[in-house]
Every structure is written in structure tokens, then in C-alpha cells.
């Protein structure tokens, strides 16, 4: 399983960029946690973080941590300052593998497709720099500068929970695409109370269940080139809930009802 290190910039006695009571270290930790949670929820990936609380971590400690854990990718999260506006990404300005360049292109475009189109965030471009965390990591690495803490419009977005959610999801999606991460699947337990070639028979079964106070829907499926009409009385994430509904359906007189397990990608 691929390992990704998420690096929330600054922390502890290093606040990073500051604007009044707003500190870069707090924004970077919030965004990083959301990126971590999104990836863990939706993809088969191992996520490590250089910090998970407000603690001081040196640049050397960050890269040593990633290297010692043999990470496959390193993503450092920062907030910009200096009176500008917008979003930009960095990779090392020395020799890097083509995979590093490709990953930057994918992540950058994925993020801008969301925050540029939805929020009008300025695209400051794909850049290169001699940052420690880009130079000293043994794996492909990227550093993201997420808006400007000292620009009023950017700060408004950084304080907008919907924007932070969309930003974190887009970063997570970008990383997933760049590394070709495998999506997690979820199992739905569907209670099938009959399957018919004739739709009217399915409608009759649905009506019968309704007289017993049991809701159901008709789902058309194709099996071996033939259309069938399934009467489905619920879809559950927990098998115990499906089994309870199955008992209810059987008590209503549908003795051939059964549970169908359906695996779908996590949405």
C-alpha cells in the first residue's frame, strides 16, 4: 500500500506567517488533517503526518521522518504571505524524476479546477524552488502555498469552512490521481424480495409489501442479456440491519427473499 506523508507547515514555537490573531500553523494543520481524512476515507493508502498537533518540528525532522518511513510521496501544506493573492505549487528546482513533474501537473490542475472555477482563486502557477523539504526528501515531493494570510479576500476564504473542505478534497483527489491510488469499496447489503421477468409481477409484489408497511423499489437489471425486475426493500451498510429487514419481509410471507451483497467504489 502506498505511503503518503502530509506535512503541515510550521507549528509549535514557529507560527509561520501571521495576520493579527491568524497564524499559518493553524490553517496548515486544519487543511492537512482534512486531506488525510479524505484520503483515508476514500483510498487504499497509508497516511503519515509530520505533526498532528501544535508542535515544533524542524525541517530536518520532517524530511528524516519521510525518508525513514520510505514514503512514496511527500506533500507540504503552507499558507502564503507578502500581499499577493492566489494558489501555487512548488517542486525542487534541481534534477527531479519525470514522475515528480507529472504529479505536480496533476495536483495543480485538480486543485485549480475546483478553487479557481468555484471561488475565482488566482492560479499563480507551477513553480520550482530550493526548499529544504523538496530538496532533502528521497521521494517525489510537492509544496503547496494555499492563498495569502495577509490579503483580506484570501483570508476570508481561509476562514470559510466550505472552501477549506473543497480545497482539502481537491488536494486529496490530486494526490490520488497522481499516485493512481486504488479506491476503497463499500459493501451495501440489499434485501431482495423477489426478481421477475414481468414488470407487472414486480409491481404486484411491491404493492403487497406496501400493504404490510414495508417500503420497496423496483430495480431493473440485465442478466445474461435478459431484463429482470428486482423488488428491493432497502440497502444497508450494516449487515445486521439488512438481516432485520429480511426477517421482516419473510414474516410478511416472502419466503424466498434474500440479501444481495453489492460492492461499489466509495463516493
Automatic annotation (TrEMBL):
Q: Which domain of life is it from?
A: Bacteria
Entry GO terms, CC: outer membrane-bounded periplasmic space
GO BP terms: namely:
peptidoglycan catabolic process
Which stretches make up the SPOR domain? 183-262
Gene3D superfamilies, alphabetized: Sporulation related repeat (3.30.70.1070), Zn-dependent exopeptidases (3.40.630.40)
* This protein's record includes keyword Hydrolase: yes
Q: Which UniProt keywords apply?
A: Hydrolase
Q: Which Pfam families match?
A: Amidase_3, SPOR
Q: Which SMART domains match?
A: Ami_3 (SM00646)
Q: Which GO terms describe its molecular function?
A: N-acetylmuramoyl-L-alanine amidase activity; peptidoglycan binding
Q: Does the keyword Aminoacyl-tRNA synthetase apply?
A: no
Specify the protein name: N-acetylmuramoyl-L-alanine amidase
